[in-house]
């Protein structure tokens, strides 16, 4: 009984791994249930340990090579620098959430938060003072160590300078003597040339030796003193935290929504009092207008939301929303047309030239076309009912629905539609004729044939096409966002490139891993969907 239960658990786990596309873990599961241990250990070594070793080797190689190469943006970031950029972006996002929360706090909650933040400032301030003391000590230690390492080389350089001066003087004397002998016809022109060549060689050799020692000194000066570097990082981190906390205090004191509303209400009360005191019709009318403006201002303030900066997580959300809009649009277009082409040879013949012409077109061209078209449809997007409606929705309103999102999504759709269309047509066209004949014998209508035979039989290829389309759409979107300056990961990468600093380089590499990771997850998602709905024996359920 226990054995049957264990087998049932094992096969459920294996089925789950199969459906999700993580079959690399199959040997571990089988080994855990003592199924052919030797065979499973070999599989683990080949398909799990070996890739991990290779990836580790690549990271180590990156770590070794990166500092040795300089770019216009500084050193190539090492993995730890890229990881640090990821933490900084995460910290920025967390701080934006804090500021949004501080903006919405009222009454006792705001006062309690203010007291807590002021307490944190005192704590962090004391920590900063101790770290600055440690930094001064590390700078002194570094200076002492640097002097000890450079002093012998500097002495050698000075000694070498004296020797080179002597050698140069001796060589110059030889040249002068040879020139005098040449004047008296006691030496040939070749002797004079040789003397000059010897002088030049002596000077070059002396410069080369001095240059070598100077390079050693420069290399020592450029060496990073890890304790000092860490002390600077600690000081900068705490100083940055203290600065942020001070901004929070200012925010809670002056920029909080409840504070602004309270100040606006005080102004309204003053205007109402002045309205009551008005003695003339002109003064009363003017004051009444001020009261109405104050009331309107209070209404706006009460509804005001925090205008959060575009963090990397918001960029990710917008990019994902855009790619899914474009992908769904591509699927809605591609699947019906693909089914039509698969069922009708005339339709296939008619659409083949269209597919052949427009499939290879660059996404840049599509982007420019849709920019023009969408711009013509929405000449005033800020007041257009379409954007006002979608921006008012609770879940997607914060993403900033605008024309840039529309033409980016359309560009994704224009590039992603072709793999789905072609694979759908191929899947429908390759249906077993026996299935069609059975449908005719059973006298099934077109709709029944479509839903019960054609689409289920074509699903594996349809989903294969959709999987390719989603991958293509994700790649196209990043390029479209970068070129159009549309909010999203593409714009994030482009902005960092324009910045041009070493940290920006690290952010670009960080974005590379983020884009790749999201692409991997999207691919896994399509694999799961494909295996859940297909009937090709690759796992149809969990």
SSE blueprint and pairings:
Layout: H1 2-20, H2 26-32, H3 37-65, E1 70-71, E2 74-75, H4 79-104, H5 107-183, H6 189-222, H7 226-255, H8 257-277, H9 281-303, H10 312-343, H11 345-358, H12 363-377, H13 385-391, H14 403-429, H15 433-441, H16 446-484, H17 489-499, H18 502-533
Antiparallel strand pairs: 1-2
Helix pairs in contact: 2-3, 4-7, 4-18, 5-6, 5-7, 8-9, 10-11, 10-14, 10-16, 10-17, 12-14, 14-16, 16-17, 16-18, 17-18
How would you characterize this protein structure?
The chain has helices at residues 2-20, 26-32, 37-65, 79-104, 107-183, 189-222, 226-255, 257-277, 281-303, 312-343, 345-358, 363-377, 385-391, 403-429, 433-441, 446-484, 489-499, 502-533; strands spanning 70-71, 74-75. By secondary structure, the chain is mainly α. 20% of the residues are buried. It is extended, with a radius of gyration of 37 Å. Residues 537-542 have low confidence and may be disordered. α8 (257-277) runs antiparallel to α9 (281-303). The chain has a two-stranded antiparallel sheet.
Q: What's the gist of this structure?
A:
Helices cover 83% and strands 1% of the residues.
> What is the overall number of helices?
18
Output the strand order for the largest sheet. 1-2
Report on the biggest sheet: 2 strands, antiparallel
For the residues shown, what is the average pLDDT?
84
Essential attributes:
mainly alpha; 542 residues; two-stranded antiparallel ribbon; 4 domains; 1% strand; 2 strands; 83% helix
């Amino acid at each position: 009984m226990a054995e049957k239960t264990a087998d049932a658990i094992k096969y459920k786990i294996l089925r789950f791994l199969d459906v999700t596309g993580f079959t690399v873990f199959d040997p571990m599961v089988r080994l855990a249930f003592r199924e052919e241990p030797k065979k499973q250990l070999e599989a683990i070594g080949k398909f799990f340990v070996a890739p991990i070793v290779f990836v580790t080797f690549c990271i180590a190689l990156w770590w070794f090579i990166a500092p040795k190469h300089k770019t216009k943006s500084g050193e190539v970031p090492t993995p730890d620098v890229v990881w640090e950029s990821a933490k900084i972006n995460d910290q920025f996002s967390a701080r934006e959430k804090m500021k949004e929360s501080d903006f919405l706090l009222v009454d006792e909650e705001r006062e309690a938060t203010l007291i807590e933040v002021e307490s944190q400032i005192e704590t962090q301030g004391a920590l900063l003072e101790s770290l600055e003391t440690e930094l001064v000590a590390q700078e002194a230690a570094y200076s002492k160590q640097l002097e000890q390492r450079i002093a012998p080389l500097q002495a050698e350089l000075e000694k070498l300078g004296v020797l080179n001066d002597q050698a140069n003087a001796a060589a110059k004397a030889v040249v002068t003597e040879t020139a005098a002998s040449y004047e008296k016809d006691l030496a040939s022109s070749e002797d004079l040339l040789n003397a000059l060549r010897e002088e030049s060689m002596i000077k070059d050799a002396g410069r080369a030796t001095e240059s070598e020692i100077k390079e050693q000194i420069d290399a020592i000066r450029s060496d990073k003193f890890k304790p000092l570097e860490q002390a600077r990082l600690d000081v900068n981190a705490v100083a940055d935290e203290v600065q942020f906390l001070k901004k929070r205090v200012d925010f809670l004191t002056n920029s909080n929504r409840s504070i602004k509303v309270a100040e606006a209400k005080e102004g309204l009360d003053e205007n109402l009092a002045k309205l009551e005191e008005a003695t003339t019709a002109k003064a009363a009318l003017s004051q009444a207008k001020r009261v109405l403006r104050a009331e309107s201002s209070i209404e706006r303030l009460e509804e005001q939301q925090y205008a959060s900066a575009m963090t990397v997580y918001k960029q990710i959300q917008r990019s994902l929303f855009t790619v899914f809009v474009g992908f769904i649009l591509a699927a809605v277009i591609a699947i019906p047309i693909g089914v039509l082409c698969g069922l009708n040879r005339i339709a296939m013949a008619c659409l083949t030239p269209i597919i052949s012409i427009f499939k290879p077109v660059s996404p840049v061209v599509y982007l420019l076309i849709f920019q023009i078209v969408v711009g013509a449809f929405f000449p005033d997007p800020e007041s257009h009912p379409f954007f006002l409606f979608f921006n008012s929705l609770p879940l997607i309103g914060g993403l900033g629905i605008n024309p840039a999102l529309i033409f980016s999504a359309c560009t994704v759709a224009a590039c992603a539609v072709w793999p789905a269309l072609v694979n759908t047509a191929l899947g429908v066209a390759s249906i077993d004729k026996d299935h069609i004949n059975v449908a005719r014998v059973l006298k099934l209508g077109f709709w029944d044939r479509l839903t019960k035979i054609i689409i289920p039989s074509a699903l594996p290829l349809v989903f294969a096409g959709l999987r390719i389309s989603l991958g293509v759409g994700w790649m196209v979107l990043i390029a479209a966002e970068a070129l159009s300056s549309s909010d999203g990961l593409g714009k994030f990468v482009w902005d960092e490139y324009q910045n041009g600093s070493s940290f920006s380089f690290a952010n670009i590499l960080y974005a590379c891993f983020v884009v790749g990771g999201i692409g991997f997850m999207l691919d896994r998602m399509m694999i799961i969907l494909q295996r859940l709905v297909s009937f090709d024996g690759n796992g149809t359920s969990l």
